[in-house]
Amino acid sequence: MSLAAFLSGKLNATGKKSAPQQESVYEFTMRSLDGTEIDFNRFRGKKLLIVNTASRCGKTPQYAGLQKLHEQYGDKVTVLGFPANNFLWQEPGSNAEIAVFCEKNYGVTFHLFEKISVKGKDQHPLYTWLEYKTGNKPDWNFGKYLVMEDGVTVKYFKSGVQPLDEVLLREILNN
Predict the structure, then answer these.
(1) Which phi and psi (to 5°) does residue 104 adopt?
(2) Where residue 164 falls among pLDDT bands split at 50, 70, 90?
(3) Residue 102 catalytic?
(4) What is the distance between the alpha carbons of residues 156 and 134, in angstroms, rounded to a whole number?
(5) Which CATH number applies to 20-173: 3.10.180.10, 1.10.468.10, 3.40.30.10, 1.10.540.10?
(6) Annotated catalytic residue: which of 5, 57, 64, 169?
(7) What is the pLDDT of the chain when averaged over all its residues?
(8) Taking the model in full, what pTM does it have?
(9) Residues 6 or more apart whose Cβ sits within 8 Å of residue 127
């Protein structure tokens, strides 16, 4: 472990990531694609499906499934998309370009946030928190974290799990 990593607070004395400061997902505030600050407190008491997305990936058609999930089960789960360029540079566009692409090609109306890093040295604190809660980093674009209504319990689903897959729907519809 480097001294710089230890001093930055990202690694503890054993060389593992330190526990995030946030206890629940509701402590985060992030910018949407249009730059609006979104306080996650507005989602309190709801299940959240947090997905790292990309526009130039073989899994990009999952946007359609996420939109359908949003339309059919929006009363049960809130879909939050986080464009990321971490896997083979498959999200090179600006926030404005991403917004146009998603609306034009998939009619996306669920929440999309500004592009962030979901792994590595510049990993966004939200993804550090999700990784800490589940022990899982996104395996590729369209990795999914289902945060339960308590804002603390999180389940991870690999990128190959489709948005309308029964294993995911079972968790979403389970009260």
Answers:
(1) -65, -45
(2) very high
(3) no
(4) 7
(5) 3.40.30.10
(6) 57
(7) 91
(8) 0.89
(9) 52, 82, 116, 117, 118, 119, 137, 138
